[in-house]
Structures are given as structure tokens and as C-alpha cells.
Amino acid sequence: MWSYPFNRFLCEPTIRQQMFMEQLKASNLADHRYYLEDEKERSLCRAVCTPGTRERILANITTWVKNSSLESQTIYWLFGLAGTGKSTIAFTLARRFELAANTDTTALGGNFFCSRQFEETRQAKRIVRTIVYHLALVCKPFANALARCGRFDTIHRDVRTQLEDLLVRPWHESESDRLANPSTPPHYLIIIDALDEIDGKGGSDFLRDLLYIINKHHLRGLKFFATSRPDPDLVNHIKSFKDKQLYRLEEVPSEEAQDDIAKYLNASLPYFVGSPAMDRLVSQADGLFIYAATIVKYLADLEEVEQKNLLDQLLTTSALGVPQMKDDEAPLLDQLYIQLLSNAFDNLPSTVRPDRLKILHTFLCTAERTSTSIVADLISISDADSFTKVVDKVLSQLHAVLYTQHDQVFWYHKSFPDFLFNPDRSKRFWCNEAEHHRRLVESCFRIMKSGIRFNIANIQSSFVLDNDNSILPDAVKQNIRPFLSYSCRNWDYHLCAVQTRDMAPLCVTLSEFLKLPVLFWIEAMNLLGSRGLCESMLLKACKWVTEVSVLLTKYLMINLPCGVVRLNSSRTIGRGGNICRLFQREQSLIVDASPVHIGTSNMATEYRALSGMEAPFPRYSQIHQRFATWHIGDEHYVVGGGIRRRIFA
Asked: pLDDT for 235-253, tens place per residue?
């Protein structure tokens, strides 16, 4: 029997190996142990199953994990509807096989807990990198093989290629060393949770690629446990593979589910143990764990008598049905969400309620998890500091579904945003995503218009590199406030989510931005350490403009008397032309890899200044070849990049 001290970083990779590991760009947020060392610092609110619950399904999965026979399936797919407890089961397994490392023949090899709340945890391309990184940390022979034959450039390739070059090849290469080393566990479990949280159809596509690789290569010593919501097409696809095991949580007997819910509620609400209210609550939950968990959070921090009164109100409302909704139109969880939102919003004056709903919708629509103060600045045109108190109040009223950690607002369960983004389910509380993203992109441009400027950090000399300027970090923090930082880094996210209808005012805003402000924006992005995003953000704007080009051209024809757009003074786009050509990729901005600041002058608005480029920049005699001059009527847009990969204007 092999054994080793419990240590996540078991094999302590050499400096060379550690360099390779860093090249994988693994996600720390997706690790099941992220911020779990300190209960007060929990950011993702993961928890193990309540003792005594889910015993049969956990035993079933554990038996599968420990079965090392050749007949045992390589992949176990657990699927079920939202709120049935898939992530809690996955987290329990991760902790169990991590903590049992001293006595078991199977160790946790890697894990990836998907979540749409963070960009890096909702990208399929991050999954393989992260589990390979974890596996290399606990399996030294694999780490050595990865260092020898791993093709790290494939991190930018498709998932199937990543699996082939970063997992399959090193795993087979390390087989003899693994079997010969008694200190190396013979079997490893890989856990991938909530694949439905991956953007678009990335989760389903990832599982298809994983099944293809497993079917093509026999990965002896590796087992994969994955969870997701049911996808009918994927279920049929998976059924065609023999090397798999499926379990649908809806198939758990109702008596067993009710018993598990009762154990959970008794442990969480001891005041109600044995009471008629507890019996009614268990019956009302109907085996849905997220329903029970939301009730528990809603009653948290209240005195016992307050808990009783509020629970009576909730149970009575559920029994009578939610107003304005028919019983067959809303699932059980929807009724609970409707009731929680009704308690928070329905008694507000009609002049106040819309703004409060905008706050809730902003919590869900921001590109990244943000603070209440940033939300206040995005919504409030004036006196954002006072409005922050209103935002904080909304958050406190919705503590059963939202919470804050490290000054960031999160939701407990993905079923809540799904509910609010569906007009048939959320009714009067519906969040119109496209419309709200329009508001947010307008807010971003409003904030940038008043916030970005030339030399925003008040740097005295442009000849000093950022790394040599000791006071620069404090200057950036003082002059680029969090709400301005958010707007600079995320306006493209909201722009791309705006629908094409009624976009004329937004196009005017974008065209104004592409004059002089775009240069100040690049400088701000450089100071924020995000200069590498500039090109991709402008290309996303290009794609959006392409999609609305017909309507935009019509708008320009009406509003621009000259009606002529020229690119580089060589291409002429007539009144019926396509304005998206303003964003030609060959003219996309390239920011220097070294942090040198941008200089701006009258060249940004005066085309004639381009005719003597060599004079102000004698070192760059060919710089004029890389300048783009955009003309819309009598207006001029000038942006350029030198052959030395520096931005000038």
C-alpha cells in the first residue's frame, strides 16, 4: 500500500517544471479548494453534503471510482435539473478523495468547477489546462513526462488537441514510471462540475471531445466524473458510448429525496425540528435542495420568532399560489423566487421600484463580479455615493439569493439568473438582457467621457518607463477609480450584447469615442495593465458594427451631409458603403510590449499633420505606412501604429 503526507503540492515541481506549469495558465478559481481554507473567505460558497444525506448516490459513485477492473467505465456523468444538488455531490467527492489520500488507492488528480460568475471558470479552453496542472502537481511521473513531451503551445488550440497533447501523450509516456514508483497512487479521479455553466455550447462540446478521446485512447489509471444539466442531444450521443456510466438525479426515489431534505433542514433550522411547519416545509421542497437551501438563507440571522412568522408567510403563500400566476405556469422554485422578489419590491413606491430593479439586473449583467459602489456608479448619473446606500439595501433584502465577499456581489445558484432572464418565468421582475446591456454600455461611455484624459496619471516625464516609476501605482489608483477601470475594461462586453434595433444613438456615441478619446482609453488600459485587450476589444466592436452596418449606414446617410467615408485616403466608401470597413483588421491597434506612454497632438484631428511624419518622429521613417485616417463627413479619425509596435497619434 502506498502512502504519502497529505499535501496538495505533493511532488514540488522543479523550477523548469514549474515554468511549464505556469505556461498552462490554469484557473485557480475553478479549483474546489479556492478560498476554502478560511470559512470567512469563502467566495464560491461550496459545501459538502449534510451528514446522512445523499448516502446511496455517494456510495454508488465511490464504488465506481474504486473499481479498477478493466470492465469499469472511465467516465461517470451525473446529470439533473438545476437545484438538485449536483455541485454539492461533486464537491463532497473532491474533498473525500483528497482527504483519503493516505489510505486509498485512488487520489484526486484534478478538478474544474465551472461557474459563469467568472470569465476564467466559464471557458471550455481552461478546463484541460487546469486539470493537467493539478495532475502534474500530485503525480511526479506525469509532471516529468509533461515537461519532456508536452506541447504547451496547444493551450491556444481546440479542446481535442489540448487533450491529445497535454493529457494523453504525457500520461502514456509516464505509465512505466508510475507503475514502478510505489509512492505514486495507481489511480486518479478527475472531477469536472457544472459543464452547463460554460459559455454557449462549450460544455456539451467539451464532453463530446472528452468522450471521443476516451473512446480513442485507453487512459488506464484515470477516471472522469462530470456533472451538468440534461442535454437531450448529448444524452443520446453519450448513450452510443459503452465506456461510460450515467445517473440522473431525478431518478432518486421520492422517499429518499424527502428524507435527505428533512435531514438537511433539521440540521440547518433546529428551532423547527419536529414542528408542523418543518413537515410542511419538507413536503413543499418536494426533493429540491436549492429550494430548501434558499429558505434557509432567507431565514438566516433572524430571531426564532421572526423565523417562524416569515416561514408561516412563505408556506401560506406557496399553498395559496403566487398572485398573477397559475400553478401550472411556474415550477416550485419559481414560486419561491417570485415570493422573495415580491417581498423586496412590491411595497415600494412606483417611482422607486424601477431603479431598485435596475440594481438587481445590474448585479446579474456586469461582465465581472463587482462591488455595490461600482453598480451605483453605473446606474446613477449623479450622487453615486448616496446611491450606494440604496444598492446596499437591495443587496441586504435579497440575501437569500445574493451575497457579497471581498467586496464583490455573487449569486448562490445559477437557477436565479436563469429565472430572471426568462420573461415567462419571472414575469414583472424580468431582466431584458439586451436592453439592460444597452444601458450599461451607455454608462461605460458616459463614465469614460468624463474620466479619461491625456496623461491621466499626471506623469511628469514620458521618458520614464512604468517599471521605473515608483509612484505610478498610487497615481493610477488615485486617478483611475474602480468604476472607471470597469468601464474601460468591459464596454465591449456590453456593446456586443446590445441588439441591432434602436442602436443609432449608441453608434453616435461609438463614433465620438473613436475620435480622440480612443487614444486616452488606450493609455488608461496600459496603466491598468490591460493593454493587451485593446485590439480584441476593438475587433469585437468591429464585429458588432458589421452586424448593424446596414442600419448604421442608413443613419449616416441621413445625418452626414457629405456622406463620404474614406479609409487611409485611398479607399472611398460612398453613401451606400459599409461603415464596418472603418475597423479593417490591418489597421487594428497594436500596443507596445514595453510600457511607454502615448503622446497625442493635433494629428488626432488634423489630417494635414500626417504629411510630415518624419519630422516629429525621425527615428521612425516608415511610420506613415501604418497610420489609419478615417473621415466621416468633415470629421477626422486618426489612429496609428509604428513599425516598432508603438502607438502614436
From this structure: 767 777 776 777 777 778 8
- The DSSP annotation for 525-584 comes to HHHTT-GGGHHHHHHHHHHHHHHTHHHHHHHHHHH-SS--EEETTTEEE-TTS-GGGGG-
Q: Which triple of cell numbers denotes residue 328?
A: 401550472
Asked whether 188 and 222 are in contact (CB, 8 A), the reply is yes
Reduced to 3 DSSP states, what percent helix, strand and coil does the chain have, rounded to the nearest 5? 55, 10, 35
Q: Which amino acid type is present at position 339?
A: Q
Give the model's confidence band at 486: pLDDT under 50 very low, under 70 low, under 90 confident, else very high. Answer: very high
Across 74-88, 265-279, 593-607, which has the greatest mean pLDDT?
Answer: 265-279
Burial class (CB in 10 A: 0-12, 13-18, 19+), 253: exposed
Nearest to 450 by CA among 488, 415, 416: 488
Which set of grid coordinates corresponds to residue 294? 434558499
pLDDT for 618 equals 37
Coil, strand or helix at 108: strand
Q: Are 296 and 287 in contact (CB under 8 A)?
A: no
Whether 513 contacts 520, CB under 8 Å:
no
Q: Using an 8 Å Cβ cutoff, are 408 and 473 in contact?
A: no
| DSSP code string of 346-366 | TTS-TTTHHHHHHHHHHHHHS
* Helix extents (H) in 107-200: 125-138, 140-149, 159-162, 169-173, 175-180
Calculate mean pLDDT across residues 78-89.
Answer: 85
**Is residue 629 helix, strand or coil?**
strand
DSSP 466: G
525/515 Cα distance (integer angstroms): 17
CA atoms within 13 A on the CB side of 394: 26
Find out whether 549 and 578 touch, Cβ atoms under 8 Å. yes
Cell 446522512 maps to which residue? 52
User: Using CA atoms, how far apart are residues 555 and 557, in angstroms rounded to an integer?
Assistant: 5
Average predicted confidence (pLDDT) for the chain:
77
Angstrom distances, CA of residue 252 to CA of 55, 192, 255, 260, 602: 11, 22, 8, 11, 71
Q: How many CB atoms lie within 10 A of CB 622?
A: 11
CA–CA distance, 365 with 361 (Å, rounded to integer): 6
